[in-house]
Amino acid sequence: MDSEFVKGHRSRLKEKYKSGGFSHDYELLELLLTYSIPRRDVKPAAKSLLARFGSVEGVLNANSEQLKEIAGIGENSALIISAISEINKRAFEQGDCGCRIVSREEITAYCRAALANYGANTILMITLNNSGGVISCNDVTEDCRLYYENGNVKQFGSILLRDSAARVVFAQKTDSELPRPAMHTVSFVIKMISFFSEIEAELADYIIIGNNGTAYSMRGSERYNHYF
Length: 228
Fold this sequence. Notes:
Blueprint: H1 3-18, H2 25-33, H3 43-53, H4 56-61, H5 64-67, H6 75-94, H7 104-114, E1 123-128, E2 134-139, H8 141-150, H9 154-163, E3 167-173, H10 183-198, E4 202-209, E5 215-217
Parallel strand pairs: 3-4
Antiparallel strand pairs: 1-2, 1-3, 4-5
Helix pairs in contact: 1-2, 2-3
């Protein structure tokens, strides 16, 4: 494609963003790619990313190797997309102090937002004070894996005691459209309810978010709410 046309298109893209934003998701990715891919039309790559991963969220959740499978996406582009994803995660985790979540709807909405930039099978531990204020949001995926291997729960207690938290919510992201807890998840929840009660805290809920945003609350389920 003619380099003058590419240059002019990029200028128009930037002006459109500055004057009110984009109506199409691919334009946002297109603008991002202009900073990692010089002198080339990046619209095909932006559209291919959306076609492959389904949404901007899906693109941000993809790892570098998955991104580089897309035609036109090299090391630099994969790096800048991964960096944006990491920035989003850290900004969310560092900016949630003072947020108050009390109702099941508020808790579910928070979990959905907290997991937005994480991949499937991520598990977060969210600590709350007595009034429902969020203290911290912690990626405990590896801690849960270790728990399933050796039954050690001390890592969860350490987070709770560090924050002087009164309540805890676990949030899990799954790649299923119909999120439901596995049997080992049910066993984990029962163990956590007992463990936290011993140190005068409460497991408020275990929320599972599906790949389409559908949420499943174990506390809100007739099948599991008696455990709480």
